[in-house]
Structures are given as structure tokens and as C-alpha cells.
Amino acid sequence: MTFGNIHCNLYVHFLVIGISRPIRNRVSQNHKMRIIMVLSSMSVMFSTYCTFLLCFLHSLKIGIDGGQHRGMVYMVYGLFAIFISMGWSFITLVLAHCVMLYTVALVKRKWICFVAGLCSLATFKMEPYGSWQAGFVTGSFELQDILFYGGCGFTIMRCMSFALENCEKKDGNYTFIDLLKYNFYLPFFYFGPVMTFDQFHVQANNPNLTRKDRELRDITSKALLHLGAILVVDVFFHFLYILTIPADMRLVKKLSDWSLAGLAYSNLVYDWVKAAVMFGVINTVARLDHLDPPQPPKCITMLYVFSETHFDRGINDWICKYVYDYIGKDHDGIFRELVATICTFAITTLWLGPCELVYIWSFFNCFGLNFELWLAKLFSFPPFSTIEGILSEAMSRRIRSVFNAVNFWQIILYNILALNSLDFAKLVAKRLIVQGFPLSTLSVLFVTYCGVQLVKERERRLALLEEEQALEEKPKID
Known about the structure:
This protein is mainly alpha-helical. The chain has one domain (1-352). Helix content is 72%, strand content 0%. The chain is built from 20 helices and no strands. The protein has helices at residues 12-15, 29-59, 66-86, 88-105, 110-125, 129-134, 144-168, 176-183, 186-189, 197-204, 215-239, 249-252, 257-288, 313-328, 334-352, 356-378, 384-390, 393-419, 422-435, 439-473. Helix 3 (66-86) crosses helix 4 (88-105) and helix 15 (334-352) packs antiparallel against helix 16. The longest helix has 35 residues, at 439-473. Mean pLDDT is 81; it is low at 1-30 and 54-66. It is found in: Endoplasmic reticulum membrane. It is a multi-pass membrane protein. It comes from Clupea harengus (Atlantic herring). Its main location: endoplasmic reticulum.
């Protein structure tokens, strides 16, 4: 079960820096990528140096286990890099929250850890507490807000994961150093993704530093791919004006229905590319450090159901593990599922930063997910289940694709709220549903239906290929 099952499609606009204050001081996404590339490049060089150093020490047999001390070295390096970029006041503020949440973790009560963590997160997402804490950070430069809110927000999420995992630990407690190693791993610190503490702790302390066959070649090829994608995004940003056109409502109103639909779709694709590149670069660095981080987001074109829509698999896994699955249990009961999704989107709203736009976004996405679940329950009972049993697999897929095509545009409409504005979302909905009916509406849905069919066929073939590979890898019994 993934938090795809809760539809936490957290776009990079909001995911990286929150929304409450930074949305009023929005900075070019290209600057974020450049910062990521700088930090990632530093981490790549350090990772290579650290690997050589640890291997050298191990070869001298001085009794130092390289795998055991990797986390400590990464923590020291991360603290040094954060000090250079943000200063001691920022580190002191982050450490204060870490100490507070570590103290709460020693109580080993999940509900206390959750309440303390959410209250700590609220101090960064709500005014005037966010501005008050930001005032402790001296200096002023263009990216300070992004680094401040990104670093603090992800710190709280990591500390909550640490506290909740400590509650599960039967013998003793994890140490404060374990928390610092986890939190100050540089590639994840400012921009995520979030690895849950249990996964990071095991991987960072794994003494086996060997790599699979062709793993380095795969890492290199993906790094080159991400570099090319960054150049493409930069060209799009400067020459195609994908993000600025929706802001000019006088111009947008003159567009045809097809142009308007294409513009809405292009905005989501463009934002997905930015998220995929950002997380892809970070993941490449983490893989060089022998970690297995959450994968980049699934392509927006392949998201035709709410239950699979998410843009950050790290936050997806975090909320799924600690909220959605914890409350929803086996996800069979409609009421329990409703409570689980409401709690999930309540926390998501706090994470994004409470404001009117986020409230609307959360409501519609929560409704869309639950409505999808209710329909799935309804069609699992007779006579619908009986009728589907009579149909061929291909015909059943065609019928489902009709509903999925409608779902796809619901996802588009709900999420351009986050990327653009309420006025632009209203205009797209009005033109495609009311003014454009029936010609524009049905033609757009038909093209979407064909696209969904292609995606479903690709998924079917990939599933068959994975089954074949699993059978081949299964040891043969004589």
C-alpha cells in the first residue's frame, strides 16, 4: 500500500519550501535547481573522497569499520556545509527542535510524539511564529527563505519519524547521535526526499559497500540524463512561458478550448519534470553514498486514478506509514478509510501551510480519492460485479478507461489550483465542461481515453515482464 493510495500529490512548488510564507516570496525554480546541483556536486566529491579514505583505513587494519562510521562522517560534513550556507544561528535553531523532539521520543508514546511534532511543524508553517523564528537567522540573500523553510520543515518530519520509530524499539532507545546522523545528511537536508528513520539507519550503518554489476554505469547514465533535463527545463522556462501565461487572464480568455486544455496539462507536465529532475539529482548522489532513496515521481501522463497520484514518494511513504495505514488498518471499512484520508489531508494541509488555496486543494483531492473508493466498493457488488464478470478483459479495460479519462481531468483541474490560481482553474473548468460542451468536452475526453488505454497497455506489458523476470530469478528446483 502506497500513499499513492491517499493521493498526496505534493508538487515541488509547495513540497520544497512550504506555502504559507514562501508563496508570497516565490523564487525561480531554476535557482532551486542550481542550489541543488551545487550541494549535490559537493556531496559527490565528498562521497568519493570518503569512500577512498575509509577503504584506506580498512586496508591498514586499524580497527575502524568504514561502514559503521560513514554516517558520522556524513553528519560532520553536513553540519559544516549547512554552517557555511546558513550560519550558526540556523543550526542552533534546528538543534533546539531536535533536542525537544528527542526528549519527547524518550517517553515512547506515539500520540505524544505526534502532537509534539505537529506543534513544532506548525511553528514554521503558521504566522507569526514562522517569521519570529526566521528572524533569528542573520544575513539576507535571495535563497535564504527557501533554505530556511525547507531545512526546518524536513527536519521536523525526520525528527517525527525518529521519535515514532523509537517508540517501536523494544530494547532501549536510539541515541541523539543517531538522530543527528539521520537529520544532517546533506543531500536530503534542504529539499528531501524523506527516508523514514528505520530505512536510513539500516542503510547508513551497512558495512557492505560493494556495488551490483553495472550500478555505477547506471548512476552515471542517470546523472547525464538529469543534466540534459535541467537544460531542457531551463529552455522551457525562458522561452515557452508555461508558468507566466496562466497569470495573464486577459490573454488566457482569448485562447481556444484546446489551447487552454493543453496549457493546463503542460503546467503539470512542466512541474513534474522539475520535481523528477530535482529528486533524481538528489537520489543519484544518495546512491553514490550506498543508500536506496525513494524514487522520483511517476509521470503525470500516467496518473489516471487518485489512488496512484503522488509527486514525492518520500512524503508519500512517511504519511502512509505513520498516518494512513496506521489509521486505515486493512482499508476495508469505508468509515475507517474516510477518517484515515481526512487525517492524512489535515496533516498534508499543515505541511503545505494553511491558507485558503490549500484548503480548497485538500478538500477536492480528499473528496476525489474517497469518491473513487466509494465507486470501487459499489461496483464490487452485484449486479455490477456480475456484469463485469461476463465482459472480456479488454472490454472491461475499455469501460474503466472511460471513467479514468474523466478522473485524469479531475486530477488536472484540482492541481492547477496549487500550481496557478483559482481563477485559472475556474476558467479551464468552465470552458471544458460548460461552454465547450459537447464538441470540445468529448473530443478532449476521447484523446485522453486513447492515452489512458496506451498507459494501461504499457503497464500490462511491464507487469508481464516483471513476472517473467521473477520466474527466471527464482532458483530452479531439480
